[in-house]
TrEMBL record, chains A, B:
InterPro entries: 6-PGluconate_DH-like_C_sf (IPR008927), 6PGD_dom2 (IPR013328), ApbA (IPR003710), Ketopantoate_reductase (IPR050838), KPA_reductase (IPR013752), KPR_N (IPR013332), NAD(P)-bd_dom_sf (IPR036291). Residues 178-303 form the Ketopantoate reductase C-terminal domain. Signal peptide: none annotated. GO terms for cellular component: cytoplasm. Catalyzes the NADPH-dependent reduction of ketopantoate into pantoic acid. It comes from Levilactobacillus suantsaiihabitans. GO terms for biological process: pantothenate biosynthetic process. Belongs to the ketopantoate reductase family. Transmembrane segments: none annotated. GO terms for molecular function: 2-dehydropantoate 2-reductase activity; NADP binding. This is 2-dehydropantoate 2-reductase. It is an enzyme of class 1 (oxidoreductase). Its EC number is 1.1.1.169.
Length: 310, 310
């Protein structure tokens, strides 16, 4: 299969290596010139769990420069960069590739729909993870899985073929029953842990130790539940709360600072508009007010502005 | 006049000095033992605008130790310490002194009413200010004024006598037309500037430079306006917004960190429950939801907990 990975950060590179090693023809697409140059000149270095380095030779290219025909485009940008990326790679979208995103946040389907017919879109969630110490270098730990579903299952061309390709590469992909519910569930968790840990500059365990964490949590998730219901998506505030409470101990994620906290610390824009901000906006459209999520999104934007992040 | 000043911090001491210098018999009441001891042993040192020190001899005493009869009790504790203070000085409240508070925050009248008949209570706002570098030592700058009103004007014994006493001491006191409106106005300003500057760890000018300060501001003040209306208090979100916008320039208060920010920095409990928290609570009672103010109060409490402030 000819596969383009649009957004070749830590995760995009990890997927790219696995898919190419399984016999696919992979092109990595990324905006970071030093990263693209390093991959093309020295290859991509992958440091594995045991500390050993492995070098893989893949083709990397800037978004505006990509050409050719692809069977599958995997979008691995952050939610807020997705629209620009799709615009930049519009030259390869005309030949009806399948377009898959596993990005965090709600509203990604709406972004992709502006560039690609709904019938070609597949969305999912993943627990694979990866880090990037520098250009041309990723660090991978553990294994993961993918849960995915076509946006219009009856119209998507070859879903079982897609699953076969992903699983031949060892990506542990399976079909989701209700992928939108899974996306909202993950977004609900992130809209509590990412947002509050960023706002309070604390880790997940410290958030869980707050005397009023349940009040803070419920104010967000009760609005999520109401907006999800109006939008026809299954969402249980209680289920997500249970999932959140399971992250607090040092044995799970207690010592961890969520990705939004890391974005803020490294002066990168956050995904807040695709988490609390999305629910506030959708709530306003559906006349289900979500004032807590609205003010939290504004507070994170204020913190971005104070840090000079635009 | 025999005057007790309950809560002899920077402001209480400044008022005490002025009132005693005008011929009143003043007793300072405070919980801080080192401060009480310093005043009794070395006198109270007042550093004035021009940098000179002046020593005044006043009587200071711990709340549980105060006895005697007073014509006037001026409460200068923070809102959240007022209830305990009134309990501790209950021995001097039996002889029907007038009780005056100029403390920030809404709900102070309700606190005082639990200890003193409504007919004896006077409330107001002030723009006098003062700082305290250490025990037995205050630093005063500029001048100020007081605007005050009896809670039940028709029942208060001698309001003009009270005004005369305050003005003989140079405190620039005048009768307010609608003291509750003035208290809500000041609380509205503080519920925006104090709360957000504390939450974001920024000064007033930095808050004013945020691209979304109006959105953050309006979310708080529109709820204030709705709750005030239900409570029968005059409140204009637009008026308070104008007052807030006038604080942003370096020439006014732009470089200033509000008192709540200083409380948090010095590990002291904040007044949040008498600002945003009060409006959230009153809104819930009056069935006028104030979710923005509710979550802001919870966020400040979370920050207090993270700093080990209980």
């Amino acid at each position: 299969m000819k596969i383009a990975i649009a957004g070749a950060g830590a995760m995009g590179c990890r997927f790219g290596v696995k898919l190419q090693s399984a016999g696919n023809q992979v092109t990595l697409i990324d905006n970071w010139a030093a990263h693209v140059a390093a991959i093309n000149q020295q290859g991509l270095t992958v440091t594995t769990d045991d500390g050993t380095d492995h070098v893989y030779h893949l083709t990397a290219v800037a978004p505006q420069a990509v050409t050719g025909e692809f069977d599958l485009v995997i979008l691995f940008t952050k939610a807020m960069q997705m629209d620009q990326m799709l615009q930049d790679i519009s030259g390869i979208l005309g030949n009806h590739p399948a377009v898959l995103t596993l990005a965090n946040g709600i509203g990604n389907v709406e972004t992709i729909e502006r560039h690609v017919p709904k019938s070609q879109i597949v969305v999912g969630t993943t627990v694979w993870s990866s880090g990037m110490p520098g250009p041309g270098h990723i660090k991978v730990t553990g294994t993961g899985s993918i849960s995915l579903q076509a946006v219009v299952p009856t119209e998507f061309a070859d879903f079982s073929g897609l699953l076969t390709t992903l699983n031949a590469a060892g990506l542990n992909a399976s079909q989701a029953d209700n992928v939108m519910a899974a996306i909202w569930k993950k977004a609900g968790l992130n809209s509590v842990l990412n947002t509050y840990c960023t706002l309070f500059d604390c880790n997940i365990g410290e958030f869980g130790a707050l005397p009023n964490w349940r009040t803070l949590n419920d104010a967000v998730l009760n609005e999520f539940e109401a907006v999800a219901q109006a939008a026809g998506v299954a969402f249980s505030a209680q289920d997500v709360t249970d999932l959140i409470a399971a992250q607090f101990s040092p044995e799970t994620n207690g010592g961890h600072y969520p990705s939004m906290h890391q974005d803020m610390a490294h002066q990168r824009p956050t995904e807040i508009d695709f988490l609390n901000g999305y629910v506030a906006k959708l709530g306003a459209q559906l006349q289900v007010p979500a004032p807590t999520n609205a003010i939290l999104a504004q507070e994170i934007h204020a913190q971005e502005a104070l840090k000079g992040i635009s």
